[in-house]
Amino acid sequence: MLRPRHSTMATVGQKQQAKDNIGTLKRLWSFLSPQKGWLIAVVAMVIISSCLSLLGPYVVGRAIDAYIVTKRMDGFFLVVALLLFIYASLSVSTFLQSYWMIRVAQKTIYAIRQQLFRHFHELPISFFDKRQQGELMSRITNDIENMSQTFNSTVIQVISSTLTLVGAICVMLWLSPLLTFVTLLVVPLMYIGMRWITNRTQKRFREQQRCLGEMNGFIEEVISGQKIVKMFAQERRVIDEFLRKNETLKQAGFWAQTYSGFIPKLMNFLNNLSFALIAGVGGILALKGMISIGVIVVFAEYARQFTRPLNDLANQWNTLLSALAGAERVFEIFDMEKEEQDETGAISLDYIQGKVEFDHVVFSYDKKQDAIRDVSFSVSPGETVALVGPTGAGKTTILQLLARFYDPDRGHIFIDGHDSRSIKRASLRAHMAFVLQDTFLFEGTIRDNIRYGKLDASDEEVERAAKWANAHSFIMKLPNGYDTVLKQDGGGISQGQRQLLAIARAMVANPSILILDEATSNIDTVTEMKIQEALERLMKGRTCFVIAHRLNTIQNADRILVLNEGKIIEQGTHESLLEAKGFYYDLYHHHLQKEEVS
Ligand SMILES: Nc1ncnc2c1ncn2[C@@H]1O[C@H](COP(=O)(O)OP(=O)(O)OP(=O)(O)O)[C@@H](O)[C@H]1O
């Protein structure tokens, strides 16, 4: 009873798959089409080389009948010279076809990679929040590489194999329809075998790519969090987890390769079968004088030429399926909705004073539970606001909304009186600088890392900012001063020094609004004092929002916003809040004070 239902579902699935594959191929074509001219040249070369490879055996067959069987030597050398010419031209045309195709492939892959990388930058922060870095990197590296290899060889192989097949069948039919029929007897077997195999391989290849992406994500996570792994002695658990992922990948890879490995074996068997049939039936026909020995030789050679392209097509089919699986994953990223475009008529602000207003702002990440619930407050230019509250209270979310990484679901945020939605995101962020807990430094010189805050800053500006940020003296002690190259993510300098560089970077940007997420890590007292002093200089005259952990920062803030469960429950100065003996009072006595003491 279940069987028919099952097979109907399978057919629907296959139809959908075929539709998806055609869709993916169409999208690939949109990337290939700018290279149309070169593609035409490649196809021309493929046609020439396919004709030449068909011509060779035909000339050999004719030579056997005309010269060898009849033992005539006149013209024999001419035939040899002709064969030399055919095979030399074949070499040249095959060289040109692959040289031009590689050119087309590399240009196309370059365009896809470029577009994908650009697209990554247009995606909203929420996209990155939900995904592993390594898995995304796998798409831009592995999947694209997979496509590149397919472009390099598959297109040529598919065209050349198809042409050779059609050409061989035509010549065979012309020479002997009966022997052609015998040769073609194996084709239905090939079709059935291939269908059986490819139905199984595509699923497995997709699974293999997915597992590879997942494993890359895991590796990336473990390598970047290696310190934490060691600190918590989690090596065993991590290795076990890797073992599980590796095992899944091995299984997926094993079945994908095993099924696809059946193809050449099947082809080989059918090849030999058709060879035997030609020899047997051809021999009988020759004995009866119906065909010549030369024709049998041509058929035997064509049978090889005939199954080889089929074999190639089958192999290429696998490569193509695997590349299509990769392409699907790449296009999946292209289909992700970009960060909302700036509203039409959105303005750019050359200068902002730094007045910030939240007006009944409500926001939820998952559209189920509100992270920010009806938050309203107003901050004057130059004011320093400390955000305090227990973990998950919504402090970071408020700052993310301010920088328009997300927009409120309800309510408004005004900057200098303009609704933040009416300001271009880039323009708004250009007036802000961030000094976050985990300072991200890029691979490059110290100078370039500071200059990241303002790309056109002069060397003098960079050094002035570093001096203000108390970073100059440690930079000068480094072997190459400002030209010292930092390893990826600032490896090679201390946590405190990284923070000083982050302050210098913000300083050079000269923002009107500063967003600080104070680091909680323990830093020696001298560096801590340097950071404190640098921050005070940086904050002066700017509107500052600080997720505060240091008592000192909180006490010095013009205003403290106390958050709990997404709501502002109290606000005021340190003294006034203590006097009120409310939530802040408890927080101060039970948490903030202790943290400071420790
Ligand atoms: N990217 C996200 N996707 C879904 N929910 C999120 C996301 N980021 C934060 N949240 C949720 O939103 C709420 C507020 O989080 P938020 O990070 O703003 O708190 P916080 O006060 O900054 O906490 P902490 O002091 O621990 O950094 C929490 O319930 C949190 O789980």
Give a quick summary of the entry.
Helix content is 67%, strand content 10%.
Describe the 3D structure.
By secondary structure, the protein is of the alpha/beta class. It folds into two domains: 10-198 and 257-334, ABC transporter type 1, transmembrane domain (ABC transporter transmembrane region fold), CATH 1.20.1560.10; 356-597, P-loop containing nucleotide triphosphate hydrolases (Rossmann fold, 3-Layer(aba) Sandwich). 67% of the residues lie in helices and 10% in strands. It has helices at 2-32, 36-68, 76-122, 125-129, 133-175, 177-184, 186-224, 226-231, 235-287, 293-334, 395-402, 425-430, 446-451, 459-468, 472-477, 495-509, 525-539, 551-556, 574-580, 583-597, and strands at 356-363, 372-379, 384-388, 410-415, 418-419, 432-435, 444-445, 485-486, 513-517, 543-547, 559-564, 567-572. It has a six-stranded mixed beta sheet, with helices on both faces. It has a four-stranded antiparallel beta sheet with strand order 2-1-4-5, covered by helices on one side. The protein has a two-stranded antiparallel sheet with strand order 7-8. Strand 4 and strand 5 form a beta hairpin. Helix 2 runs antiparallel to helix 3 and helix 9 packs antiparallel against helix 10. The longest helix is centred in the middle third of the chain and has 53 residues, at 235-287. The protein binds adenosine-5'-triphosphate (ATP). Adenosine-5'-triphosphate (ATP) binds at residues 129, 365-366, 371, 389, 391-397. Pfam families: ABC_membrane, ABC_tran. It comes from Parageobacillus thermantarcticus. Residues 356-590 form the ABC transporter domain. Keywords: ATP-binding, Cell membrane, Membrane, Nucleotide-binding, Transmembrane, Transmembrane helix, Transport. Its main location: membrane.
